[in-house]
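Hey team,

Filing this mostly as a record. A colleague (T.K.) asked me to run one chain through the structure pipeline before their review meeting, and I want the input and output archived in the tracker in case anyone asks later how it was produced. No errors, nothing strange. Just documentation.

Input sequence:
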Amino acid sequence: MHSSKPTTTSPVRKAQRVHVALELAEKQLAKHLEKVRREELPITEDGTVDTGALSTRMVEYDDESAQQRSTVLVGGGKLFRSDESKTPVDTAKSVTHQTGPGAEIFVVSETNEIHMASHKLGKFHHSSLLGGKPVSMAGEMKVTAGKIDWISNKSGHYAPSKEQLLQFLYHLGKDGVPLTFEVKGMGKAAYKPGTTAAQVVAGIGSDGTEVAKFGHDHAKTQSVLAAWKTELGKPAFKKVFADNGWRCDHYDDVYEVEDKKTGKTVPGKAIRDAFKRAYPGRQPREEIQL
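Output structure:
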């Protein structure tokens, strides 16, 4: 006997009445056609994407003028377009190929500027927003009247890391954006549905449990310590821990620092401040700016 994997049944197939199934099918078709229209995709008479015509599309790259128009400003806990009227960002009429209608793709420049726009398959991608330049973060987000509903790190081109997502969320919070919105992480940054940005920044596992070492403070400490070790060399690096009465058993791996007297874990900020005091005026370059 052959076994088969369970398949996901669509709402249309689950419908017990014909008229209900028809209504659901019509809604799905309408959403599909709206997505295709917003992406400006070539379609055939039966509503399917013309793959031949799609293959001839060329990806566009914004010049400096277009990049200025796509810039998004942060103020008062909300996002605003960079037009003269400073219109609150609202993605209701936008689209991404992954999510469909109601969201936009975004990138963050190396100088922390946010750029947003609709995603058009084969024509306008994440790399288009900054003309192919490097970015510090990329993904998708849904925004209503300036307030963020959710954010993801979905970008096939840039494949943002968990650390880059943490960095972006932390700085949004520093800029006054309430971190109450949902994070729809991908890959190693995957979280349970409903996980908020505040939980991600504080530290949370994929199963929903609070884990401080997965948060921003811990990630920043790892980045800073790695930079200090490169800057100072191991003997001088380890001396800072000894001078403060701390124990660190894994200098070449994860930095779990313990106070020898209390047996408690030393907070990340206390560790970073200790290096600043020991070597005032020196600022090593972090591999990942957090």
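Quick notes for T.K.: The chain is about 35% helix and 15% strand. Residues 51 and 265 are 57 Å apart (CA to CA).
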